[in-house]
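Q: Predict the assembly, please.
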Amino acid sequence: MKARWLACALPLALTLAGCERLMHDMYEQPRYGPDAASPLFADGRAERPPPPGSVPAAMGTLAATSSGHLGRDELVARAQAAAASAPAAITPALLARGQERFAIYCEPCHGPLGDGEGPVVQHGFPHPPSYHEQRLRDAPDRHFYDVISQGHGVMYSYADRVTPQDRWAIVAYIRALQLSQGARVAELPPALRARLPASGGGR
Ligand code: HEC
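A: Predicted assembly structure:
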């Protein structure tokens, strides 16, 4: 009995010792430390600069948009201050950006018209209110910005996916959507008003 136990235990012990040796070799393999020199690269540095076009994710506005990178209160405060108010000018480029971001992040539930008939809702997610409700037509821009940033009821926050600038772009696009479904005739530019049939057709 004792001999059999030994016969089993001995190879096991040897194997484990081999393992330990292998681990040790992995710890000890050659590697560069921070700021080390290297003959491999023309600039003599082992540390490689980030490729052109890299965007820092641990600082700046992006950091304050990702819950994974929050941390320094000052950075967050600065990003929030920078995004505290809507952009001064609503440009076609801003609207186009808002439309693109809306299609990615909001349309699945709110639908292309903003009436809350997106495909996710048709599969059982709670129905969001239509952006064309009077209450949401009357709501200030900031309300939409805050809903994107903090979530609202069962709708979760999009702060980790939509930067503050993009939130304002989406808000501008939602305003355009609201106009598209209910502009007052008196608010239309004269050129558009002239194209309306004489009987009216707007509100
Ligand atoms: C997964 C589905 C879903 C997505 C995606 C979504 N929402 Fe919502 N949203 C909802 C639901 C559901 C409600 C209603 C929440 C409640 O009242 O409990 C809602 C409510 C709202 C409201 C109304 C808040 C109020 O005052 O009643 C606004 C504005 C809004 N969402 C904007 C957005 C924007 C902008 C985006 C894209 C950045 C977005 N939502 C993405 C589901 C979604």
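The pocket of heme C is lined by residues 105-106, 108-110, 120, 125-126, 128-129, 144, 147-148, 152-155, 158, 162, 170 (CB under 6 Å). The chain has a mean pLDDT of 81.
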